[in-house]
C-alpha cells in the first residue's frame, strides 16, 4: 500500500524547469480542441500506440489465449468512464472470443507481458450508436491505457527449464520421496508472491502426497540434489481461477525458481512402513512383550521403533513417526478397544495377504 502512494510523487531526476514540456502539451491541446468537430480517430480505424514495450518478450498474445490486464478507460477529452485499477483486480478474458468489445479483442493481439498500449477504439468496434446506458454515450470513441500482466492458453503444458545440473546424480526425485528445497515464486510480470528464503528455511514435502499444488508436484519430479530449475505452471495446475486471497491473483501463471537441497528416498507408493528383511514368524509374541496375549499401543510403538533403530524396518520419511505407528495400530485393532488380540492380528495379516493375491 505504501509503495503505491510513493509512485504518485515526482520521480527523482525530474528537471526543475518543466515549462518546455508544458508548453508543448498546451500546443497539442489547442490543436486538439480546434479539431474537435472531426472525430479524433478517422473512420472505423483502430489506433494502437505501443507506449511501453519490454526488452524481453518470450511470448505474445494470440487468439484463444487467456489474458489478465489492467486498463484505464477515458473518453477523448480525458474523462474517465471505467478503470480496472479502481476495482483493484485485473480484467480477465479469452482473447478473440467476444468476451470484450471487438476493438479490445483486436488491440490485445500481439501484446507482451508488461507491455503497455494506448488504444483508441472507434464506436463501430465499441458500443456503436447505441452506447451503454448511463456510462457510454452514443457514437463514443474510447481510449484505453492497457497494461498486460499475464498470458496463458488452455493448451499450455508445464514447462521446466533446468539451468544447473550437478555432474553426480545417483538418484532423482520420485513420488513418496521426502525432499527439502528452496524456491522463489513470481508472477509473469515479475511480482514476487512467495519465497522460502523469506522464512529462512527450506520447504519440506513428500512428493506426490498433495502437500503442494499439482504443478509443483510435477515440477519437482526427476530433480537431482543440487539441481536448479525454473518451472512455469499454468493456472489450472496452480491456484486456478480463485487464486490465493491477498497473495496470488486468480487465473495467474506461476513461475517457480527451485533449488533442491536434500532427498530422502521414500517407501513404495502407499506404504508407511516396510520390513527390510524377512518378517519374524513369531511377530505377535515378539510385540507382546509382557506376554499377556494383548498388544497395547505402547508395546506396539516400542517394538516398531526398535525395528527402525536396528535397521530391520523403515518408516515413510517426511511424516510424524508417532502418527504412522498409531495408524498402523488402529488398523490392527479392528474392534477399536485399544488393544490388539492375536485373533485380530492374524485376521488382518490374512486379509492383507488375500488383498495382495488379488493384485
Ligand atoms: Ca501385552
Ligand atoms: Ca482390539
Write a brief caption for the model.
With about 350 residues, the protein is of the alpha+beta class. The protein has helices at about 1-5, 20-35, 85, 100-105, 215-220, 285, 295-310, 320-330, 340-359; strands at about 45-50, 65-75, 80-85, 90-95, 115-120, 140-150, 160-165, 180-185, 190-195, 205, 230-235, 255-265, 275, 295, 315, 340. The protein contains 9 helices and 16 strands.
What does this protein structure show overall?
A hairpin with a 4-residue loop joins strand 8 and strand 9. The protein starts with a helix and ends with a helix. It has 359 residues and is of the alpha+beta class. The chain contains 9 helices and 16 strands. It has helices at residues 2-6, 19-34, 84-87, 102-107, 214-219, 283-287, 297-310, 321-332, 342-358, and strands at residues 47-52, 66-74, 80-83, 91-94, 116-121, 142-152, 159-164, 178-187, 192-195, 203-206, 228-233, 254-264, 273-275, 294-296, 313-315, 339-341. Strands 1, 2, 3, 4, 5 and 6 form a 6-stranded antiparallel sheet that branches. Strands 7, 8, 9, 10, 11 and 12 form a 6-stranded antiparallel sheet that branches. The chain is elongated. It binds calcium ion (2 copies). Residues 333, 335, 337, 339-341, 344 line the site of one calcium ion (CA).
